TrEMBL record:
The name this protein goes by in its record: Possible ABC antibiotics transporter
Keywords linked to the UniProt accession: Membrane, Transmembrane, Transmembrane helix
The organism's taxonomic lineage, starting at the top: Bacteria, Bacillati, Actinomycetota, Actinomycetes, Mycobacteriales
Statement: the UniProt record of this protein carries the keyword Transmembrane: yes
TM region(s), chain numbering: 22-44, 85-105, 126-148, 160-182
């Protein structure tokens, strides 16, 4: 037996336990992304209306709370969604991964289930590896469901895939960070709080960096949130 023995079985077990929670997260984020596309088509059917609204977002407060402003000079519907609402979808994807990893690592240890699992033919690194593999599955599902939903709502298919891939990339970053935090925290609530604090810090650093210089500065790149936004989905992929 090696340290990863039983990982595949634990992945199946984790997915079965989350057969309701994970689909709700994935469907919820995907539906919200599609809703933004569909709702804006109804709210701003004329390009002039969209340009007028985009002008209000092109100020320090708007940049801090939304994004670096790619495509806001002459916005398309998709670019407006990516810049104005993408940040909130990114945060939701990050939280999905934080809660998932805490639930399947530190949470399992707190309730004693990990000790029972490790007493069987399971390697020492299998539980953590299975939790991260489950996160990979969840984020892959988010890309597929999210891009399909946005495309069905009228968004460009290629841009939708890149846009939702940004969710998955940020989600996997915070899955990995949370896995590390769970190794040094005694309680699940502490691990969740520290990971959420890291997400909040990334949010603020991204905002400050984008305010310092139009379309982002060197400070922006210190935040993983900015990495996803810098893909410039629907504008300059």
């Amino acid at each position: 037996m090696n340290t990863f023995t039983g990982t595949a079985s634990l992945v199946r077990f984790d997915l079965r336990r989350d057969r309701i929670k994970l689909p709700l997260w994935v469907i919820g984020i995907s539906a919200l992304a599609a809703y933004f596309v569909a709702a804006l088509q109804l709210a701003y059917p004329v390009a002039e209306d969209l340009r007028g609204v985009a002008g209000f977002a092109d100020n320090p407060a708007g940049v801090m709370m939304s994004g670096p402003g790619y495509g806001m000079d002459d916005p398309t519907l998709e670019a407006f969604v990516a810049n104005q609402y993408g940040l909130y979808l990114l945060v939701a994807a990050a939280f999905m991964n934080i809660l998932l990893v805490v639930r399947h690592t530190r949470g399992e240890e707190e309730n004693g289930r990990t000790e029972l699992v490790l007493a069987g033919a399971v390697g020492r690194r299998a539980p953590l590896t299975a939790a991260l593999a489950t996160a990979v599955v969840a984020n892959a599902a988010l890309v597929v469901a999210g891009s399909a939903a946005m495309t069905a709502a009228g968004a460009d298919a290629g841009g939708a895939v890149l846009f939702t891939a940004g969710f998955a990339a940020l989600g996997l970053f915070f899955a990995a960070l949370t896995a590390l935090v769970c190794q040094v925290c005694e309680h699940g609530r502490t691990a969740t709080g520290l990971a959420a604090a890291a997400l909040g810090t990334a949010f603020v650093v991204r905002g400050v960096g984008d305010v310092l210089e139009r379309h982002g500065s060197a400070v922006s790149w210190l935040s993983p949130v900015a990495w996803s936004q810098q893909t410039r989905a629907f504008v300059d992929p």
